[in-house]
Design a protein that fits this description.
The structure is a homodimer of 591-residue chains.
Chain A lengths: L19 E13 L3 E8 L2 E8 L3 H8 L6 E10 L12 E12 L16 H6 L1 H4 L3 H23 L3 E2 L17 E3 L7 E3 L5 H9 L4 E9 L11 E10 L3 H20 L8 E4 H8 L13 E2 L10 H8 L3 E7 L8 H11 L8 E5 L5 E3 L7 H10 L7 E7 L2 H18 L9 E5 L4 E4 L4 E4 L26 E6 L2 E8 L4 H10 L4 H15 L6 E7 H9 L29 H7 L1 E3 L7
Parallel strand pairs in A: 3-5, 6-9, 11-17
Antiparallel strand pairs in A: 1-2, 1-4, 2-3, 4-5, 7-8, 9-10, 10-22, 12-13, 13-16, 14-15, 14-16, 17-20, 18-19, 20-21, 21-22
Helix pairs in contact in A: 4-6, 7-11, 12-13
């Protein structure tokens, strides 16, 4: 490096006119105007225009040969531009180059390094290091850094200490699937990569560290969705001698600070809270998007004496009939659109959608009104505030939860279709979760959150007799309909922990084998404690309005869990496997 | 939590006298004086004395039942102590307790929670959460947090951004052994855990991020030494458009800040530099401890015409004869001690140590002087500044490097034996390393640092003809004789990278298969770049004067790579292995 950079490209403004500067970066483009050559030079801060004049033949000659993505350093005086560019921050100036050094030439990249690239994502992932040069992607990574720094500052200021928890841990299969790591020193044994540092942060509280914080990678070997990655990042917290309110308040302070520092937006706290039962009843979701209304209308009582068999059978079976009213959206749903929605909802466990619509001329049609009494029709319309121009969607199912979840999903879907007007930000705590939920596939109780969440004291008595009635000291943070954090008070009593694990089907022996160290720890003085984990990738994605989680991760994996740039995973040599004492199954499928 | 903590135990001083406070923590000890009970309450900040008087029978009764490690909250007024304890910061006051809440009882712990515990380390590791309550251990973790925060602040202030690099990466076996992670989606293929984020941070530079920083876990499946862990933490840096000096200066600023903030010590910069050849010649080590002198004395030239066969054979074979003079330490080495040292040095590849000693009465003895000429003896004594009271150790070997490394090791050993006076801190950059070293076991060249270190421009011409002559743009940071950081300028030229990989024995095909993505990247505009990684665990260990790296890691592993608290690694169920398409070798040894 014989050129010493004085400034970043994006930071040179008119107050620097007359100064000599040295910049380094990549050629964004070169324009040859005959006696004058312009080069846009780019670094992570932005772009600045370099000007090369024929009167300085050495650099003019060099500039002539520059191509996109060449890496150069340039020295020269900052001058006022004759034709200013108001579209970029440095558009008032240019650098008249006196010395140029080409550090690295570049082949023509496989796609152009510009904002809003229309190159396919697969190609861009293969050349991720080029894609990351595009400012719409690099700015996400720069903001990610800023958010991580804000988190560390905020929690440090509040007395949290970073404690690094191990990555090679014991496999305790519950919840998602573990990634395993074969041990060479103990052939036939395995480590697992952590799905979260849950037990270690609880042990840190039992050790007396009082407030713990870590921004940490976690691993889940699951089939991926658009917003999941096999490795993902959590802002992980734990506090001792606190209740739920203390934890929520601490997290609110952080979210408020994020919005203030990143977007200069003031968010009010405390955030709105709603208990789980209300969420389900009103929005059919435990992570409702409250940026818009369209609350669920409950019609079950109203129809309790109906003679229409479709509804009456369901109601007799303790099922529900629910509706949503898409105000003024009648025109947006043709009969064909409604049929399509009806097909769509099957995946949510109900057979079809019923509807009533009425255009502004009061021409109305309905799939069910003809089967109901005039009184019932009137009551439904009144209860739903149904007016000309509206369309009412009804969902009914004998299983209460299925019905609510289906109408909840429909609410979100309809809002999307009609492009409903949404407020900008909806932050919400959902509280009073059930401790367990029933897993139909395995016919067992599973933990709604995880097995270490404390039951509410007053519900302890139901643990063995009516476990589904037991509520948890748990609270999820919802941002615009997405769960961005899950928190709870943890069990700190040995006996309660044993009873909860018992409800989850662990025998005494299994409990001892898998969680013996935690149960031991609880017998040597465990403080009341609790905490929360924020999904950092998802938080950034939602804050920045990205559509895919890959847009906020520097080197992401695709949905098969592979990484396209380095082509991993890959085959390894036999020596490596022999040392580990493992063999491949004959039928291995290398895809 | 019905008690709201107002203060940490260790922060209540006499200016709080008369105030009502609430503290939470663990009972350190309880002393029953009949009408008065004292309880020392501990949290992460320290200890405070609680006083319980008979006149308040409810809390007095509660206090009577308290035992070590019970978890409680206590409220009461801060009072001046009648008998002050100058040994603890809160020794002037006590809290006269009005309300007490016992959150958690505790069994008698398997060892006492006190400083300088004499319990065995194995027991303490099994109950790590109890061991971490001891202040001599917890203070290390608290300082570790402080150091991590300082690092993040310092590098952020200097324009570095944190970029998270992936943990599930491609296995590129070179250097140490990879930990492997079987892929379920691609049966028969594997991820590896990173030995360092080396290639990703270089790609981040090629992507234009300019300055990268991460405090990151790395993994090496090696047989462990006292200061190694299978997972360890690096402060990992990379910068673009810089030379070695820029990187060293940036790191010096950080180390200076650490010493200032942690120990309030001023360290001068720039740090001392020494090139590799001089280090080897003067101290027989590429990480010399310069807190003391005892430089190597070179006797080869002096003895070039000696008739003593032991030396002359070696010198004829281009070997060396070297000495160190342990000034005034003659009395510390009996003949038996010297024999022991001679036995010890065999592991360093030389057969024995020769010596000359002379006590203060000039009674002298020597193992070799009788074989030399009077002139030679005189010259050796003069060159070595040998005086009465000194002892001179000689080492000779036909291989130059073996001789230097042996005498270098002897220098450290002797300094330890005689408890030589050392200055407090020695910080040193070692520069001008060879790019390669010859691996006798495999009869190949291996990279002295790693395969991506740039050769010095002027030595490029030797790459194919005399690769061992090629020096690297590499620099190690040495603290008190320990390597705490390794840095270098990286190769950013496609052809140079290919040539270096060629020297290391990679065929074109292997190069493409393993490093193709990096070589591709270098062809699309790679900036000059370089960086450094600090071994964070080791840095903390040395700064805090700990003897074992486990003392600065919250949840460490032992030398077999297992973790005693959770008993990991462990066996996993067949279903897990079946899903991954792997089988255990029949002869697996589960130790």
């Amino acid at each position: 490096m014989d050129f010493k950079r004085t400034d970043y490209c994006g930071n040179i403004f008119s107050k620097k006119i007359g100064e000599k500067v040295t910049v380094c970066g990549w050629v964004q483009k070169q324009r040859d105007l005959g006696k004058l050559i312009f080069v846009d030079l780019r670094d992570r801060t932005g772009v600045v225009q370099l000007a090369f004049y024929e009167k300085n033949p050495k650099v003019f000659e060099q500039a002539f040969r520059l191509r996109a993505e060449f890496v150069v350093a340039a020295s020269g005086f900052v001058c006022e531009r004759s034709s200013k560019n108001p579209n970029i921050p440095t558009g008032d100036i240019e650098i008249e180059v006196e010395q140029l050094r080409v550090y690295s030439k570049a082949q023509t990249p496989p796609f152009e390094i510009v904002e809003n690239s229309n190159a396919g994502e697969e190609l861009r992932l293969k050349f991720r290091y080029l894609d990351l040069r595009r400012s719409d992607l690099s700015k996400n990574i720069l903001i990610r850094h800023k958010m991580a720094k804000l988190a560390r500052d905020y929690f440090n200021d509040n007395g949290f200490i970073e404690i690094e928890t191990p990555f090679l841990i014991k496999s305790t299969p519950e919840g998602a699937r573990d990634y395993l790591v074969p041990s060479r020193a103990f052939r036939g044994k395995f480590f697992a990569l952590p799905q979260s540092p849950q037990l270690y942060k609880q042990l840190a509280m039992i050790a007396g560290f009082d407030r713990y914080m870590q921004i940490v990678k976690c691993f889940r070997d699951e089939d991926l969705r658009a917003d999941r990655q096999p490795e993902f990042t959590q802002i992980d917290l734990e506090m001792s001698f606190v209740n739920s309110k203390d934890i929520m308040s601490m997290v609110e302070g952080f979210i408020v600070k994020l919005y203030k520092n990143i977007f200069n937006k003031d968010i009010a706290k405390p955030f709105f809270q709603m208990n789980y039962d209300d969420c389900m009843k009103k929005f059919g979701s435990d992570k409702p998007d409250l940026r818009f209304g369209m609350e669920i209308i409950h019609l079950t009582k109203l129809l309790k004496n109906t003679e229409f068999r479709v509804f009456s059978d369901i109601i007799k079976n303790k099922g529900l009939v629910c509706a949503i009213n898409a105000k003024g959206a009648c025109d947006k749903f043709s009969r064909k659109d409604i049929d399509k929605l009806s097909g769509w909802i099957v995946a949510h466990g109900v057979r079809a959608i019923s509807f009533t619509k009425s255009d502004k001329n009061k021409n109305s049609s309905s799939s069910y009104e003809k089967f109901l009494s005039t009184e019932e029709v009137k009551n439904i319309r009144e209860t739903s505030s149904f007016e000309p121009g509206d369309i009412l969607f009804l969902v009914a199912h004998k299983n209460e939860l299925t019905c609510l979840e289906a109408i909840g999903a429909l609410r979100v879907k309809v809002a999307q279709i009609i492009d409903i007007k949404k407020s900008e930000i909806s932050l919400l705590w959902v509280t009073n979760f059930p401790l367990f939920e029933y897993d139909k596939n395995q016919s067992t109780l599973i933990a709604k959150h995880h097995p270490f969440v404390a039951p509410k004291d007053e519900d302890l008595k139901f643990l063995e007799t009516n476990p589904e009635k037991v509520r948890a000291e748990a609270f999820d943070l919802i941002l615009n309909g997405n769960e961005i954090g899950g928190g709870s008070i943890r069990i700190c009593d040995f006996n309660v922990q044993k009873r909860v694990l018992g409800c989850l089907g662990f025998s005494d022996e299994e409990t001892k084998e898998r969680f013996g160290f935690l149960l031991d720890a609880m017998q040597f003085g465990a403080p009341p404690h609790g905490g929360l984990a924020l999904g950092f990738d998802r938080l950034i994605m939602i804050l920045l309005g990205c559509e895919n989680i890959r847009e906020v991760i520097a080197f992401p994996k695709i949905s098969t869990s592979s990484e396209l740039m380095t082509s991993s995973p890959s085959v390894v040599c036999d020596d490596q496997l022999n040392e580990l004492g493992i063999k491949l199954d004959k039928l291995e499928n290398t895809n």
